[in-house]
Automatic annotation (TrEMBL):
It holds the Pfam family Pkinase. Residues 1-196 form the Protein kinase domain. One of its GO terms (molecular function) is protein kinase activity. This is Uncharacterized protein. Residues 295-558 form the PPM-type phosphatase domain. InterPro entries: Kinase-like_dom_sf, PP2C, PPM-type-like_dom_sf, PPM-type_phosphatase-like_dom, Prot_kinase_dom, Ser/Thr_kinase_AS. The lineage of its organism: Eukaryota, Sar, Stramenopiles, Oomycota, Saprolegniomycetes. It comes from the Eukaryota. Transmembrane segments: none annotated.
Length: 562
């Protein structure tokens, strides 16, 4: 049953009894399966029986639907959250817009919904990709939302400037007022929430959780960690035993040889040491890519890991029916679930959203904005799609770095989540420019977002979210989704006249090879060797320098555009 009109005037309280007796009244708007089919007849329920101030976003902003048919009870949970917020702030109409914001958003055609949507954004009652479809209709004022901003808004709107001092109460309120009905807490979970029952504590890790369901997910993750072998380093027998400089002097390690070469400036012939790489090359899988407007080559190696979780994807425009070629590097962790799902669905999700955006925008400015929104929505689809279709015990995740090349327009768009990096090299590879953003937990903005969402960042070998994940943005990672974002960094740029090439590689390569070293390494071989061989050599170089991760490199020759 859905009440559809929960508000203070329909809540009856008798404080003379112990415990206090609370009852819900006025079921005139209530709907269940029987009433929906037989009481309302052909007309069906409508918003006319509802009170607008307590309607959830999926009703208020979607024409005249009375509730979400897939999750009808989520309507009432939103209304409960609004009443809860009114009690905290001590006043009704908590989503009333300020006069200053009203002046900014004033538009006769859409102002009512714009006003309310603006206030929702102030409270951070949405996840940024959720609102992209409203971009044309309503003016959005910011998209930097998290639990910390939600709390600050409550404090700012409280006449006493106190807000709500109970952390678990704030957590419950935040879960009640989720934009997405599927993410809104259920009545059963709300009644069992830590605000009423006390925190749920994991006996193994000592961490506290707001619901039993969250504790169970955490315990399942710990169990999966105990049985995971993807991080076990294999015994290595193929590392070269001798490295020699251009001066013919031999060294036992790559590091010793490289330090000698640079100290003595023996880099006239090559900036890198030499070694026997055939044993490693023979262990690498054969790779092939479809033909695109730009020549490309790739190489990959599982390295010191037992399993390979890095993947590459190249989709030509003729194959996808689009006006761009797609290049992507994906780096999975905790299994192959997320990385495999992302590779299988990335091209289709991009095509759907980018074609829709290109159909509706014509100017350069609007086109750029539209493409960015489309890419964000495509990655949101990947993230949510994987979480919905994978098992509850699948805690895998994946980073993603992609490059879109529009040959007819001689321009590119890059986007990424995580720390697989893309670097553009110009002026004969003497200038390197990162065209992606490393999303690491210790970066100030990333750390602030994680901590304001209730998480923490700790040094555990490297900086990690909740002591577990070494990146702050990924696809998947269901056990950390409260703290880890899937919102990508995006860059638009035209084809540079002095462009040389782009290297997209997983962090296993960048862990031991700097941007400048990678550029020099590729450029030395660019006119002499095949791109696949160069990519393999770059991976081998990262391996012999000591990388302990999987490694994958994709090289795109920008000089080869036809």
């Amino acid at each position: 049953m859905v009440h559809r009109d929960i508000k203070p005037s329909n809540i009856l309280v008798n404080n003379q009894d112990t415990p206090v007796l609370v009852k819900l009244a006025d079921f005139g708007s209530a709907v269940d399966t029987y009433a929906n089919e037989r009481l309302y007849g052909e007309k069906r329920p409508s918003q006319a029986e509802e009170t607008r101030e307590y309607q959830p976003p999926e009703v208020l902003l979607h024409g005249d639907i009375p509730y979400d048919p897939a999750l009808p009870t989520s309507y009432d949970m939103w209304s409960v959250g609004v009443v809860f917020l009114e009690l905290i702030l001590g006043s009704p109409h908590v989503f009333a817009i300020s006069s200053r914001a009203r002046a900014k958003l004033d538009s006769e055609e859409t102002k009512r919904k714009s006003y309310l949507l603006h206030v929702f954004t102030e409270f951070c009652i949405y996840e940024p990709p959720s609102l992209y479809r409203y971009h044309n209709d309503y003016a959005l004022v910011h998209s930097d939302c998290n639990f910390g901003t939600f709390n600050k808004t409550i404090q700012a709107r409280d006449p006493l400037e106190r807000g709500f001092q109970d952390a678990w109460g704030l957590n419950l309120l935040y879960k009640l007022l989720q934009w997405d009905p599927a993410k809104r807490i259920s009545a059963i979970d709300a009644l069992e929430h830590a605000y009423f029952r006390g925190p749920y504590v994991c006996p193994e890790s000592g961490r506290e959780f707001s619901t039993r369901r969250e504790l169970e997910v955490h315990e399942a993750y710990l169990e999966s960690q105990r049985h995971s072998t993807s991080f076990i380093l294999r015994h290595v027998r193929d590392i070269p035993s001798s490295f020699h400089c251009n001066c013919k002097r031999h060294f036992a390690t790559a590091d010793a040889c490289t330090r000698h070469l640079r100290a003595r400036r023996h880099d006239a012939e090559s900036a890198f040491c030499h070694y026997a790489s055939d044993p490693i090359r023979h262990a690498m899988p054969p790779m092939s890519l479809p033909t695109t407007a730009l020549d490309a080559g790739t190489g990959a190696f599982h390295g010191r890991r037992q399993y390979m979780e890095d993947m590459v994807l190249v989709v030509p425009r003729r194959e996808s029916g689009t006006n761009y070629d797609l290049y992507a590097v994906l780096d999975g962790h905790m299994g192959l679930g997320a990385v495999t799902y992302a590779k299988e669905h990335l091209s289709d999700r991009l095509r759907i959203h980018l074609q829709a955006s290109h159909a509706g925008y014509h100017t350069l400015m609007n086109g750029t904005v539209a493409e960015g929104l489309a890419i964000r929505q495509a990655l949101a689809d990947l993230h949510n799609g994987f979480l919905e279709t994978s098992g509850a015990s699948d805690f895998s995740g994946s980073t993603l770095t992609l490059l879109l090349h529009f040959p007819d327009e001689r321009r590119f768009v890059s986007a990424n989540v995580g720390d697989s990096r893309a670097v553009l090299y110009t002026q004969n590879a003497t200038v390197s420019s990162a065209i992606s953003m490393d999303h690491l937990p210790n970066v100030p903005n990333e750390r602030s977002r994680i901590e304001s969402s209730g998480g923490f960042v700790v040094m555990a070998g490297v900086w990690r979210v909740m002591g577990q994940l070494a990146v702050s943005r990924t696809l998947g990672d269901r056990h950390l989704r409260q703290y880890v974002s899937h919102d990508p960094s995006i860059l638009h740029f035209t084809h540079p006249s002095d462009a040389s090439f782009v290297v997209l590689a997983s962090d296993g390569v960048w862990d031991t090879v700097s941007n400048d070293d990678a550029g020099k390494f590729v450029y030395e071989r660019l006119d002499r060797d095949d791109l696949y061989e160069i990519a393999q050599d770059l991976v081998i170089e990262a391996y012999v320098r000591g990388s302990a991760d999987n490694m994958l490199a994709l090289i795109v020759d920008l000089r080869s555009e036809t």
